[in-house]
């Protein structure tokens, strides 16, 4: 950036509210071009942690601790980094009687989720529009304008998360009610838990350049989400090249897992999967317990393009005993077919576990 371009950028930033101190600091740190985002993000941020504490009738250190729990650093209690919206949130959360609910570990879950969303938004811009602008040879002012516009758009999306959260909350409540019907302990749910492992992905990824790898990861995550959502399940998380899914209905679980295996059986990819149905401990949006562990172990036992299940799935989707499946008895028009796959001695399980293979195309 030459002197003329630098001065043009300084003038542009000044017109948008940058103070002389901000300009001097950014220029000293070599971050003048990035001040455009900072100006957008600090719009209306006129309150400090001490101001919020006064509003909420709390101690400034308590306010800083509250925001830290949500993943927001407060390095200076007197710095103006908060808005009126922050003040309203702080006042509500600093007074437990106001919402009547102990948030427990929820702030940490929110922090992790919001951090991932923010990282994804930044990466999307840096690796897409910003890279295109830089390749085009645009000047510093044009880049700053585009950056400010993208930052504002991301904040608009963030504001819309409250709208989307209402829908996800409704779905989560419905899922929780169905999964806990007949279960006495509130921390337990009855679900079909499945894992799908993309065998062969490591060798494929090793042969790709960075751009091709990014395209493959995007395709993998997008298709997995589409298949699980279409089947009425929940994509719990990605674990490297493995997918963890959950479904209230074990029949839906079978169909989702089979669809994922079919979807990702392309080129050198040979997925394998495991599915188990039963009671799990659910915390922080994730699931734990022997059912989850068994499903993960079945993946390791499955051969490529195979889905292994235990007796819990066979019985639940067929309305009969696993022995009925072995005998070839009629199990209903919508029930998938299973083939006995022996008994397996699995890590972490004292006794051998009887398993079945979900017949492809059933």
Structural account:
The protein has 362 residues and is α+β, with helices and mostly antiparallel strands. 55% of the residues lie in helices and 16% in strands. The chain contains 16 helices and eight strands. The chain has helices spanning 3-15, 20-28, 35-41, 49-56, 60-69, 84-93, 96-99, 106-127, 129-136, 140-179, 201-206, 210-230, 250-263, 290-301, 311-318, 322-327, and strands spanning 188-199, 234-239, 242-247, 270-283, 286-288, 307-310, 338-344, 353-358. It is globular. 27% of the residues are buried.
Q: Please give the oligomerization state of what you see.
A: single chain
What is the mean pLDDT?
Answer: 88
Helix content: 40-55%
Q: Could you tell me the radius of gyration in angstroms? A: 26 Å
Bulk shape: globular
The unreliable regions are: none
């Amino acid at each position: 950036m030459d002197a003329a371009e630098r001065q043009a950028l300084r003038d542009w930033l000044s017109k948008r509210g940058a103070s002389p101190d901000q300009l001097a600091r950014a220029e000293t740190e070599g971050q003048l071009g990035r001040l455009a985002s900072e100006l957008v993000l600090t719009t209306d941020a006129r309150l400090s942690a001490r101001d919020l504490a006064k509003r909420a009738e709390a101690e400034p250190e308590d306010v800083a601790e509250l925001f830290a729990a949500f993943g927001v650093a407060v390095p200076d209690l007197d710095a103006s980094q908060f808005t009126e919206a922050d003040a309203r949130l702080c006042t509500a959360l600093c007074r437990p009687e106001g919402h009547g609910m102990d948030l427990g570990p929820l702030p940490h879950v929110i922090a992790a989720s919001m951090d991932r969303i923010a990282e994804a938004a930044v990466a999307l811009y840096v690796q897409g529009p910003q890279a295109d602008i830089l390749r085009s040879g645009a000047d510093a002012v044009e880049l700053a304008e585009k950056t400010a516009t993208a930052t504002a758009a991301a904040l608009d999306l963030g504001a819309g998360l409250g709208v989307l959260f209402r829908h996800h909350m409704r779905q989560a409540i419905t899922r929780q009610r169905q999964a806990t019907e007949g279960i006495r302990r509130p921390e337990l749910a009855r679900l079909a838990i499945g894992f799908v492992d993309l065998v062969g992905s490591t060798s494929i990824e090793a042969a790709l350049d960075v751009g091709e790898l990014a395209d493959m990861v995007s395709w993998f995550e997008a298709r997995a989400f589409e298949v699980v959502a279409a089947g009425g399940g929940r994509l719990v998380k990605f674990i490297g090249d493995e997918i963890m899914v959950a479904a209230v209905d074990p029949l839906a679980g079978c169909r989702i897992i089979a669809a994922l295996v079919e979807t990702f059986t392309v080129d050198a990819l040979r997925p394998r999967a495991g599915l188990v149905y039963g009671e799990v401990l659910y915390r922080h949006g994730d699931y734990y317990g022997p059912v989850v562990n068994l499903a993960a172990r079945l993946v390791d036992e499955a051969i490529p393009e195979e889905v292994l299940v235990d007796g819990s799935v066979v019985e639940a989707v067929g309305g009969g005993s696993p022995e009925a499946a072995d005998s070839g008895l009629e199990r209903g028009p919508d029930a998938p077919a299973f083939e006995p796959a022996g008994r397996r001695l699995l890590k972490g399980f004292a006794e051998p576990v009887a398993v079945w293979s979900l017949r492809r195309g059933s």
